[in-house]
Prior knowledge:
Strand 9 and strand 10 (182-188) form a beta hairpin. This protein is 19% helix and 29% strand. It has helices at residues 31-39, 46-52, 68-72, 110-118, 131-136; strands spanning 4-10, 15-17, 61-67, 86-90, 103-106, 124-129, 143-148, 157-158, 169-176, 182-188. The protein has a single domain (4-188), classed as 3-Layer(aba) Sandwich (Dihydrofolate Reductase, subunit A), CATH 3.40.430.10. The protein is of the alpha/beta class. The model has no long low-confidence stretch (mean pLDDT 93).
Amino acid sequence: MRELIYYAAVSLDGRIAAPDGAFDAFPVEGDHMDAINAEWADTVPGLLYEALGSTAPRGRFATVLMGWNTFAAGLPLTDDPYPHLEQIVFSRSRTSRDVGGSVRITADDPRGVVADLKGRPGADIWLCGGGVLAAQLRDDIDRLVLKVNPIVFGDGLPLFAGGYAPESFVLERSRAFGSGVVMNEYRRR
């Protein structure tokens, strides 16, 4: 069965973006990028592969899920961030007419969409963000892969923007990089 994997960059204080949604404070250079490019290559935006004159590899993920604000953060650059994946954006106020590319905008219940996706054959499902969507899908997340960055935001968008409801995960792998980034991989207990 396909897994829902919340793969995200996070600050030391649990923030995935600044209060205005920007995430440019996270380092994009360093030895951690080699691991991302090798092991999580299908999470790299299509624009980067286009600039390099290559195509994105497929394999780990078949689908990416985003809330509108996560998707909108990339709109100044592209309205089709991951053309190599099935892209589903959740919004109650936007429709697919608001974007181009192969992005599907839906107001459907995220848990129902994930249940349907998990029932289909194929590669895993990537929950890209944001924190509100992650909170709605918390019970459906099979794995967390957190790129913990050596930076404190002090304020901003949390990894999970929902009510208090403790969930247990088991650390399966942790790798520290010279850049200061630590990649932690957890599985639901």
